[in-house]
Amino acid sequence: MIFAIKEKYITISGEAPVPGVPVYLLRFSGCNLKCTYCDTPFVEQVTYRFTEKEMLKDIHHHLLHYPFLKLLFTGGEPLACEREDALFSLIHNLKGKPDVYIETNGSIDIPSFPKHTHIVCDWKTPSSGCENSFKPDNLKLLRPGNDCIKFVINKEDFDWVNEKIQMAKKENPGLPLYLSPQWGSLSYKDLAEFILKNRLPAAMSVQLHKIIWGSEKEGIHNGTII
Fold first, then answer.
1. pTM of the model
2. C-alpha 92 chain-centroid distance
3. Which residues have a Cβ under 8 Å from the Cβ of 142 and sit 6 or more positions away?
4. What is the mean pLDDT of the chain?
5. Those residues with Cβ within 8 angstroms of residue 105's Cβ, 6 or more apart along the chain or in another chain
6. I need a labelling partner for 86 at 20 to 30 A (CA). Which of 48, 52, 131, 196 fits?
């Protein structure tokens, strides 16, 4: 299996569940969805092609020099196509069992990863254009204390997300939920007031990386260690 990677760098995690934490981000090329607000339209491009052995060597090199670094696998869609089994093997063979965060869009069955792996499931809203992509069975597969769900929303999603939050809490009561505003479409103030007004069992998340480095182009996290 060859891992197709668009970009990789050490940066600050911008979003829940570990905002502000140093991570080694690897952005996988390719995605099965086309969200209207996608901020990585270049994700179909491939910059690096790694075998599992090469990718392990690359990751271990960074962990050797930055031993408390967490790993963030994002995209695109890290679990797309046949990549799922290869990713499981990669994580299983990581030395020292570092914390690994996998950002997935919820349209693919979530496999049972090792305990040090955390699933960050992005449940797509109506404004994304992909609201029917989420697999409801994934609600029962996510592990409280390990995994979480986030919703990236704007005002037109308010009623919908309120309903889905109630659904998620009924199916998996202990699962952490986060609401993040679509960049440039919903203010932090409006999102905060929405959460408080509706007494939602959810936390607010911001895109910290965009606040720090902006969002004008690919590699928005740059100014970081490569």
1. 0.93
2. 20
3. 110, 119, 121, 148, 149, 172, 175
4. 92
5. 31, 32, 33, 77, 121, 122, 124, 130, 133, 134
6. 131
